[in-house]
Amino acid sequence: MNDMTQPASRLSMAEIEALFALPFADLMYQAQTVHRAHFDPNRVQLSTLLSIKTGGCSEDCGYCPQSARYDAGVENQGLLNLDDVLVAARAAKAAGASRFCMGAAWRGPKQRDLEPVLDMVREVRALGLETCATLGMLKDGQAEQLKEAGLDYYNHNLDTAPEFYGDVITTRQYQDRLDTLERVRHADLHVCCGGIVGMGESRTQRAGLIAQLASLDPQPESVPINLLVQVEGTPLAGTEALDPLEFVRTIAVARLSMPKSFVRLSAGRQQMSDAVQALCFLAGANSIFYGEKLLTTGNPEWERDQRLFDTLGLTAL
């Protein structure tokens, strides 16, 4: 058995595929060993995500109920006002979140869209929370404006492997995503970048996503791994569900490939049993979205999360 408990600077695609193929116990052991070398295994970072502008997006992402192209039952909502955002941010902080993420369903923000978001970032930061935003593709200079306003993290996911990307999205190219990530890095913002599994991709394509994420230089500080939430009316509704243990394997391989990144359980957590979530934490997940809503899909209730943390002996960072 190849010993990868000593993390390499970059794993090759072949090495990542070999990790996926390990016996489950061996993979979990290696992932937990690497996790303990870099993190307290019983501490988990908590983030809350608020949709500050919902629906009406011009993109055709096949998983997303916010696309204007699909009738998925999402009610369009314009940009929230600052007071409503601050009410949500204070509630998130009171519930134990350390980071507050603001998401807007845009292809990319126009300057007139960005101005009120900059105010939100300043005011949320003043509450003592870390700030994160996901606003779509950024133009030159926009990342610097967000940085100047006090933004800590910018989220922009790669979604899937390049080889599968065209099966899911046609209105935005893979290079567009990489270009936005480069602008974010150039502005000295922390990068939050992950993807979605369970969209009908093969294991090789899941490995390709992890390889792409791990090849970013530097590697993302935060890596959200989403499990597809199937929403009626979107093209991916009806996709064969991913085996829960394959999702756990994906978390473990992400941990081994990006040993110093926070690996976050994101969308899809509501449909996971406590046992599957426990295995994900054992595999190296150490961040979750915490709260009642994850953009337009559900998220486990705070009380359930608290019970699970108590059962597993986990505490919040």
Automatic annotation (TrEMBL):
<dbReference type="InterPro" id="IPR007197">
    <property type="entry name" value="rSAM"/>
</dbReference>
<keyword id="KW-0808">Transferase</keyword>
<feature type="binding site">
    <location>
        <position position="192"/>
    </location>
    <ligand>
        <name>[2Fe-2S] cluster</name>
    </ligand>
</feature>
<feature type="binding site">
    <location>
        <position position="57"/>
    </location>
    <ligand>
        <name>[4Fe-4S] cluster</name>
    </ligand>
</feature>
<feature type="binding site">
    <location>
        <position position="64"/>
    </location>
    <ligand>
        <name>[4Fe-4S] cluster</name>
    </ligand>
</feature>
<dbReference type="InterPro" id="IPR058240">
    <property type="entry name" value="rSAM_sf"/>
</dbReference>
<keyword id="KW-0093">Biotin biosynthesis</keyword>
<protein>
    <recommendedName>
        <fullName>Biotin synthase</fullName>
        <ecNumber>2.8.1.6</ecNumber>
    </recommendedName>
</protein>
<keyword id="KW-0001">2Fe-2S</keyword>
<dbReference type="Pfam" id="PF04055">
    <property type="entry name" value="Radical_SAM"/>
</dbReference>
<dbReference type="InterPro" id="IPR002684">
    <property type="entry name" value="Biotin_synth/BioAB"/>
</dbReference>
<feature type="binding site">
    <location>
        <position position="264"/>
    </location>
    <ligand>
        <name>[2Fe-2S] cluster</name>
    </ligand>
</feature>
<keyword id="KW-0004">4Fe-4S</keyword>
<keyword id="KW-0479">Metal-binding</keyword>
<comment type="subunit">
    <text>Homodimer.</text>
</comment>
<dbReference type="InterPro" id="IPR006638">
    <property type="entry name" value="Elp3/MiaA/NifB-like_rSAM"/>
</dbReference>
<feature type="binding site">
    <location>
        <position position="61"/>
    </location>
    <ligand>
        <name>[4Fe-4S] cluster</name>
    </ligand>
</feature>
<dbReference type="Pfam" id="PF06968">
    <property type="entry name" value="BATS"/>
</dbReference>
<keyword id="KW-0411">Iron-sulfur</keyword>
<feature type="domain" description="Radical SAM core">
    <location>
        <begin position="42"/>
        <end position="260"/>
    </location>
</feature>
<dbReference type="GO" id="GO:0051537">
    <property type="term" value="F:2 iron, 2 sulfur cluster binding"/>
</dbReference>
<keyword id="KW-0949">S-adenosyl-L-methionine</keyword>
<dbReference type="GO" id="GO:0051539">
    <property type="term" value="F:4 iron, 4 sulfur cluster binding"/>
</dbReference>
<comment type="pathway">
    <text>Cofactor biosynthesis; biotin biosynthesis; biotin from 7,8-diaminononanoate: step 2/2.</text>
</comment>
<dbReference type="InterPro" id="IPR013785">
    <property type="entry name" value="Aldolase_TIM"/>
</dbReference>
<dbReference type="GO" id="GO:0004076">
    <property type="term" value="F:biotin synthase activity"/>
</dbReference>
<dbReference type="InterPro" id="IPR024177">
    <property type="entry name" value="Biotin_synthase"/>
</dbReference>
<dbReference type="GO" id="GO:0009102">
    <property type="term" value="P:biotin biosynthetic process"/>
</dbReference>
<keyword id="KW-0408">Iron</keyword>
<feature type="binding site">
    <location>
        <position position="101"/>
    </location>
    <ligand>
        <name>[2Fe-2S] cluster</name>
    </ligand>
</feature>
<comment type="function">
    <text>Catalyzes the conversion of dethiobiotin (DTB) to biotin by the insertion of a sulfur atom into dethiobiotin via a radical-based mechanism.</text>
</comment>
<feature type="binding site">
    <location>
        <position position="132"/>
    </location>
    <ligand>
        <name>[2Fe-2S] cluster</name>
    </ligand>
</feature>
<dbReference type="GO" id="GO:0005506">
    <property type="term" value="F:iron ion binding"/>
</dbReference>
<comment type="similarity">
    <text>Belongs to the radical SAM superfamily. Biotin synthase family.</text>
</comment>
<dbReference type="InterPro" id="IPR010722">
    <property type="entry name" value="BATS_dom"/>
</dbReference>
